[in-house]
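The material for today's practical consists of a large collection of protein records. A record pairs a protein's sequence with a compact description of its fold. Instead of coordinates, the fold is spelled out as a row of discrete tokens. We will come back to this pairing of sequence and fold again and again. Here is such a record, shown just as it appears in the course material.
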Amino acid sequence: MRTNAAPKVTVHTLAKMKAEHRKISMLTAYDASFARLIDQAGVDIILVGDSLGMVVQGGGNTLPVTMEEMIYHCRSVVRGTERAQVVGDMPFMSYQASLEDGIRNAGRLVKEGGVEAVKLEGGADYADLAARLVKIGIPVMGHIGLTPQSLHAMGGFKVQGRSQAQAKRLLDDARALEQAGCYSIVLEGIPRELAKEITAAISVPTIGIGAGVDCDGQVLVIYDLLGMNEEFRPKFVKRYDNLAVRIRTAVEEYITEVRTSAFPDEEHSFSREVPRPESATPYGSIRAAAGAGGGPERDPDASGAACIPFPRKT
């Protein structure tokens, strides 16, 4: 049972937002904690991106990410989400080899990962797969322009669509995906003018990343938005915080307090005295919240007593 009063975001919600010229917000998440915070902030779509291969696993690109890894992270994000639509990325070689592979693996993301839609990189070449998935009830988000799974063919992470021939191909790709039934299309790393043209030419929402302000919505990787990698500074990313510095500062303070025995102090230690029920401590409010939600109350001396429980979904 959902506890959030806001209605769930669906493909119909997003179509209505485009029709009413309301911008769509989308962010990545790879675990329940980030998903919970992003969802509570009011984001419309959470993408479990194969970008986890870079920002979580530390790889140089997205190619090594497996279906099993995507399913694991999708399940985690779904547990932390109530309002936003959750979309799962189809990783490299989960659909490129055959139509059957694509159908089977998209089904796994929905059935085992719990997502509400899947995202495919590629244009007209994958319109048949998109149409088959839509026919069996799996919503599909397209993705054209700079498609990271094709970085070797593109010669790296380079802006696409600057030439007239490339621009025409991308416009044709967008129309093919629309006709196949895709409910939205990500436009990545293309000129703003082309993104504006595509957005006006198709009836489904466009979600831009490095594609200018004229798209129907925008997406960023949450780690980039929060400034958690000081070395990664692409032109299209705006940093809304600098958590790299703030996290290091907090950890350095913790290390200092541990080494000087300033932590843990009396406030953060248990004694032989049994705590009063529903005490005024932070733990007491956590226990009360857990009990109110129908979950088991936590023993203050139990392992993991400081963890914040996620709402149960039934």
Summary: The mean pLDDT is 90. Residues 11-225 form a domain with the TIM Barrel fold (CATH 3.20.20.60). Strands lie at 24-28, 45-48, 85-89, 117-119, 140-145, 184-188, 206-209, 217-220.
